[in-house]
Amino acid sequence: MGAVAPSSHHLARAVCSPLPERGEPVVVELGAGTGSFTGEIQRRLGGRGRHLAVEIDPVLAQHLRHRHPGAEVIQNDAVGLRQLLDERGIDGADVVISGLPWALFPPTTQRQLIEATAHVLAAAGAFTAFTYLHAVPLAAARRFRALLADRFEEVVPSRTVWRNTPPAFVLHARRPRT
């Protein structure tokens, strides 16, 4: 975990905004952690589609299984995302939502995770991640934004979510480059 407190419901709403209101979307959540985004995804899906929550920590994964039985919790590393979806017969994701602490990852890990995400995302899919306002000037945060710009045709930051500790904003990326 890379946070001092769980994400607020205000941030969860902003991060989960790309979820389609209709249909049977495949939603993949990376770094589900304590479930701040998991609950919002489940609420928005309302039993539709498929929600895979990937969490590397076994204790947090077990907690998520009990708290959110509608999500398919996968205790594994998100770097192997393509294989995780293949094992479940899933061609691709309509939305990938990240709760991962991108600014804490070294360059290689950031690249591997972005590649894994872009590889499973549908052509019209959306990827969302958040970053804390205070982390914007950090080299790892700048590197993450540059990776997004290289790998996606469109990257749009949200307004600052002040009602989160610490304040954050969401990066919405669309149309992965092939």
Spatial sequence of strands, sheet with the most strands: 3-2-1-4-5-7-6
Structural class: alpha/beta
Low-pLDDT stretches are none
By DSSP (H or I, 4+ residues per run), the number of helices equals: 6
Q: Provide the residue-averaged pLDDT.
A: 95
Classify the helix fraction into a percent range. Answer: 25-40%
Oligomer: single chain
N-to-C CA distance: 31 Å
Tell me the series of helices and strands, N- to C-terminal.
HEHEHEHEHEHEE
Mass-distribution shape: globular
The percentage of residues in β strands lies in 25-35%
Roughly how many Å is the radius of gyration?
15 Å
The biggest beta sheet, please?
7 strands, mixed
Q: Tally of extended strands? A: 7
Give a structural overview:
The protein is of the alpha/beta class. Helices cover 34% and strands 27% of the residues. It contains six helices and seven strands, in the order H-E-H-E-H-E-H-E-H-E-H-E-E. It has helices spanning 9-15, 36-45, 58-67, 81-86, 107-120, 139-151, and strands spanning 26-30, 50-55, 72-75, 93-98, 121-132, 152-157, 168-176. Strands 3-2-1-4-5-7-6 form a seven-stranded mixed beta sheet, with helices on both faces. Strand 4, helix 5 and strand 5 (121-132) form a beta-alpha-beta unit. The chain is globular, with a radius of gyration of 15 Å. The N and C termini lie far apart (31 Å). The mean pLDDT is 95.
